[in-house]
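DM from R.C. (forwarded with permission)

"hey, sorry to bug you on a friday — could you get me a structure for this? deadline for the figure draft is monday and I only need the backbone to look sensible"
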Amino acid sequence: MGYLLHPDIQTPPTDTVIWRYMDLPKFLQMLEQGGLYFAVLTEFSDKWEAVLGRELTHSIATHFGGASGDVIQLFQEYSKHTAVNCWYQGAGESVAMWELYTKTEYGVAIKSTVGDLMRALSIYEPEVFVGSVEYEDHTAAPTQTLAQRNITPYKAILQKRTCYRHECELRVITELLPRFPDDAPADTLAVHPFPEHGSVIPVHLETLIHTVTTGPHYPGWARDLLASALKRAGINPPIVESDAFRPPTSRFIEG
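My reply, with the result:
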């Protein structure tokens, strides 16, 4: 099944360029496992993840009245078994993303597009949604009442505080629930505990990865490690050097 279009999720155009920044061990793990790691929201350091802002709670109270507490509880429980994979949206590299998400000199970034990310996810059976994060003040007084059809958990999952606006984030969203073996007893109680950790979801790496960019301090001798790892994974995208920190060739630009 893979990617599905969702009417309440703002999915950018398919030709939107996206980047995923990481250190070499995570990149090698991605190649080895043939997939992307989807983290549950509780794994993020930002404790505001999936908090229901005033606009959303106001809209829930308006439409659901006395049942609003049950709806809020349902939304909060849903977010506990939701997992996301995050990307940066931008035509070029981001100095901020290099500094935030590569903690060693062995930093790399993979470049793709929204459309190829969707196609790469087609080998994954459960539903997957792709949406841009909206940066808003959770505590601001509501300026509107959302239509009932727009009151969904994704409103909270795709909302972050304005101090994160520099991340220009794209999120891939799926739901992690336990799977019971086929030979489980018929009277097995279907309990769905909240996962403590995320999971690697298979993707078609050849479709996903357009280029691999080595970070601004990546040692030249280690490029062979990348080439060998890509070869073992059966893919051959170009390996390019970062332009983000390259000094100018002149102190003035002729025009």
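R.C.: lifesaver. The longest strand covers residues 82-89.
me: no worries. The chain has a mean pLDDT of 91.
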